[in-house]
Amino acid sequence: MRAKLSERNAAIVARYLEGKTLEQVGQEYGITRERVRQILIQQGVSEVQKAAVRYLRRFRDWTCRGCGKHEKRDPRNYKRLHCSKLCARKSQGPTHSEDDLIADLRRLAAELGRTPGQRDINASGKYWHMSYVYRFGSIRNAQERAGLTPRQVGGAGHAKKCP
Ligand SMILES: [Zn+2]
Predict the structure, then answer these.
(1) pTM, to two decimals
(2) Which has the minimum average pLDDT: 35-39, 77-81, 143-147?
(3) Neighbours of ion ligand 1 (CB under 5 A)
(4) How far away, in angstroms, is 159 Cα from ligand 1 center?
């Protein structure tokens, strides 16, 4: 009985340390927030831990404007638009010459043995796919310019539009 009780208390402490509020933990375990607070004291949760939890709670879901990556960010980094300097640079637009872009597309094509699509470009290319879109209007145009056969509509890049 005693072991069971302390396990439950440990779980309550753990939920709190994950960033849940007293209210949320209380609801989950069917007890008042005051009871949760008492349990935390009983279990020896320190002021330092409480401060750390308050800090963690300020983390928010964040999305990179460049690549669309999701992550949790603390308030200091929340206002940044890009996940990295590289990503910001890639998002800048047409900073690369047509020749450089086409050369890398051809290199990729030779490496893969087929026309590289958006996914290939981002996975193994020197530039990211938006550089091609900015420079040529679309990846398809870039593929044609490189003398490659554009891939069939319905490939990875069109999956969303054609269910
Ligand atoms: Zn990014």
Answers:
(1) 0.44
(2) 77-81
(3) 64, 66-67, 69, 83, 87
(4) 22
